[in-house]
Amino acid sequence: MMMNILLKGTLYSVFAVSTLFFNSCNGGNKNNTTSELYPDFDWGKEVVSPNLDWTKNVGAKTIPSGQIFNVADYGLINDSTTLNTDAIQHAIDVCHAQGGGTVKMPAGHFLTGALFIKSNVNFELDKNTVIIASTDIELYPEMQSRIAGIEMTWPCAVINILDASNAMISGKGTIDCKGEVFWNKYWELRKDYTARGLRWIVDYDCKRVRGLLVSNSKNITLKDFTIMRTGFWACQILYSDQCTLDALIVNNNIGGHGPSTDGIDIDSSSNILIENCDVDCNDDNYCLKAGRDADGLRVNRPTENIVIRNCIARKGAGLITCGSETSGSIRNVLGYNLHAYGTYTALRLKSAMNRGGTVENIYMTNVKADSVKNILAADLNWHPSYSYSKLPAEYQDTDIPEHWTTMLTPVLPEEKGYPRFRNVYFSNVDAKDAEQFISASGHSNDLRLKDFYIHNIKASTEKAGIMSYTEGFNMGNIDLIVKDGSQIEMKENYNHKLEIKYQ
Predict the structure, then answer these.
(1) Is 295 exposed, middle or buried (0-12, 13-18, 19+ CB in 10 A)?
(2) 169-212: per-residue pLDDT in tens?
(3) Domains plus CATH for the chain?
């Protein structure tokens, strides 16, 4: 993860460059607390400044305090091969029972199965601590959870914060999730399932261990550590409120191609602050989700009031992604002072015609993008081979797993599954060496992308892109250098205003 690069004749680490970028965006202000005054963002001269008062309430409001408990006093063995689950969990349980405090992991390499952080406990990793996750899936008990938009039974994560309040994981140590065994299992199963017409269910049948799960919890802080090689999503915040994720490093691009190794997933949760993080993964980098299809519509719980700032996305599918799980709706998202290096898309909105929900009030500004595929991508009918479930004839009239039935449950009436994207603000973007400026597709005359405000974009791209079935698309001060000489292909757009300079 540590890399050096040459910048104006001087050698800097990646993290030094990140600091330079963040400070330049903040005018040198290093105070990144939730109480800071948000800058006056520029959304365009014809745009009435949106109300962002909700941003004042994001993030954890408390952190644990109290006694210090050293896990070394509970039988910890530093040899990277002895299973230490019981010793670590015992220290956490004692700390919790005695009113809370800090559980300190010393330097060393410690093998473990699933761990459960309790209320009022700060689990602190020494900078030279490496927690090594066992690859034995039996050490991760199955539990009811939500996976990729549906509620089902799934193994718990390497580290879990469940039904807790005022809990924390901190310190500059590393959690190595050793996920390669689960990646290989998935790719083998996918080959078989795709051949049998089961691509839509393989992600749910191949149970893989998440890195970190926060579920049904409040006032949770995750700070400073590195998490790597997760079997599935790295960090999932599910059904939770008032959480802060600060200076996390996610590195899932080590030792192979990890399927669905998202970086940070905010899943039907509210009032979340993500700042100073650096995510390198094989799927969405910073992703907002709210349930899938009939099951997501049943739960009907939104993701809302999310701030993502001073963050980096490296390899991955989206710097900020909303969807494709949109059923409970996603609203009030502010991203600023962000940088994408080789990420698939800077701002990505995606759903499907059986998801339902509304994605709205999305604000993203002060973005640098280097070698991305799309600067802006929005699609109401994303990835049909994954998004729509169909049972092959050979399985008709047979017993199928419960989660298959969940996935096959139709959304009725059909129009309840139609998603909506509206009120999207995207400004002050400096992009170089992009493949495409825009790919924005509604679905029909009645299902258009509505009220997008794109302002002050300077970009060099291979091609311009396409817009179809939009309404109220506004672009101002757009300066494009397009290598193939194309302009944006327009199909079935209504009431748009485009001020674009092509070079």
Answers:
(1) buried
(2) 999 999 999 999 999 999 999 999 999 999 999 999 999 999 99
(3) 1-30 (no CATH), 57-502 (2.160.20.10)
